């Protein structure tokens, strides 16, 4: 492997314009494809095989007129006025009519006229048990009445300050033409704002979250500063940033260009962007740092140093990227289309980042040539340096000396951080999760104050006859509505639609609790459990859907598949680590260390978002459930990145061992050489992920936090403290491998030992081996 990559690095260094031209042509082609076919992002969370999704699919087939996406608008009256007054009532009616005039919004009056059946239109949120289908329903209390006629879909609070307008689109919101949501809100705002009535979009009308904001830009700026400090020059620091942006552009651009073949979720793009930037910068950093080290300490010219850096550090990059790709593609075993697309896009972006680091980066180094090391850096390297003052050597010396205490301390800290995990609840964050002052949060609070928490997440109950083809009898439906209304935790229940053949009825059930409340989850389970009873007593079976039910089902499904996913990831990655390190202990230690870090990460995420600890620091002032996809996403991404640090750090320790150091000397020597760049890489990844914590979207915020905190825990607690402590405990026994297994495993030469021996034999170069035991190889200085 190292010999092949050495040749690749040398060739690309010598032919930079060819390589750069190929990558530039690829990026131009992707830009052209996007111009010709603009991408469309989705906010859908489709979980195939769950009860809620099955109900949605059934309604789409049997009752498409009520299966479209649901929207809501919240109106707030000026101080001292009522929205149902003679002055403001007509204003609301005009705003509602403006919304119904939008082509993609279903007008219930047209729907009832076309069907000639009562109850087919989306229902007005009730405040008492309604009349049953088959009779002309009277307007429930709270319904806005203008000129003696009820305004369909609008309910006014008792104090008249707040009105909730619920309506329906003719398609799912993520499939609507671009600009439809904005046009819908604008249609309501036009007459309302002239009268001083505030219009707030409901949570379902939120736009696609911004992918790049101020926080993300600050994160990149921090990464650039760390690169300058680590590599010592603006030129050297600019290369990792440039290659990372090129890799992300190719990865995400390719996903956008192919978006017409699959549904591209906004969260998939955000994850690929986060991961692509982080690993792209890190992989280039490892190679550039090794090249400069070879130039400054071994006296090699830039071309030869580039080839050797790609052959050695590039081998570690290749296998580190392989572990990330394995961890991501293992998400396919979950069988959820959302996660499948997310995993494939992120894995492809990481694979492209590896390819960029091994081809485009050495080509750019071919343009920079000897300028990669400034005269100041060369002069400082030529002078005398006191190596005993190296902070990395002092730290590893302390860890090695007190290795048993270090193991106990790290384990205790990780266990303490993991304690909140015992109370973690999974779900989908609601509009309540947004920060104060955002339209989503203001709308949520107004609805909760005026109508109750449950109106922010009503349940959709589909009732169909147990005997196919038989219409639902009105008395049976009336009894069903009355029974559901009497359940504990139900504020109201009423019909919201009826199929033309009368075999399917849609009910809207409003809980007394919010969408993420545990009591709401219990209510969904109770309604589903009663389906069999209703089938026997009334001849009606039930299915529950809606955003709240979808979130509950998603959490349960992901909880079920998480153990399978972990087994697949750990099994495949153990094989890769066994091949790379040719050791039994090192892969096992790496895996156990990751389990400590991931448990601590989940605990910290629970404490901040669910318990509310320090959440104001991150722009939050409310608590919520942990997003149900966090355990899966964080496990896959963090495992891959943790193995990045494992490979770069432990391969340096193994390289020192192979080149003559033994026992704790190899740990000290290898750690001192590699830790500086690992620290820089961890800070860069934390900065990139941390920038997304301040994204307005609560889902993006949680993903950014979990990944940033996970990197900090794994890099500084596990890799830079626990790993050298355990390696020092075992000494040379850490590299033990049964003889029969040693014969079976191929020698991948990740450390480049065979490559160095061959090159030394050919050119008579100064060996690149480590210096004799007890002496530290000089690291590349800044400057």
UniProtKB/TrEMBL annotation:
Composition-biased stretches (Low complexity): 113-122, 767-783
Keywords: Cell membrane, Membrane, Transmembrane, Transmembrane helix
Alphabetized SUPFAM superfamilies for the sequence: Multidrug efflux transporter AcrB transmembrane domain
Residue runs in coiled coils: none
Transmembrane spans: 20-36, 211-234, 241-262, 268-288, 309-336, 342-368, 402-421, 562-581, 593-613, 625-642, 677-696, 702-723
Tagged with keyword Iron: no
Compartments it resides in: Cell membrane
Region (Disordered) residue spans: 112-144, 761-783
Tagged with keyword Transmembrane helix: yes
Pfam assignment, any one: MMPL
Domain SSD: 217-367
Membrane protein topology class: Multi-pass membrane protein
Gene3D superfamilies named among the record's database cross-references: Multidrug efflux transporter AcrB transmembrane domain
InterPro entries: MMPL_dom, Mycobact_MmpL, SSD
GO cellular component: plasma membrane
Protein name per UniProt: Putative drug exporter of the RND superfamily
Species in which this protein is naturally found: Blastococcus aggregatus
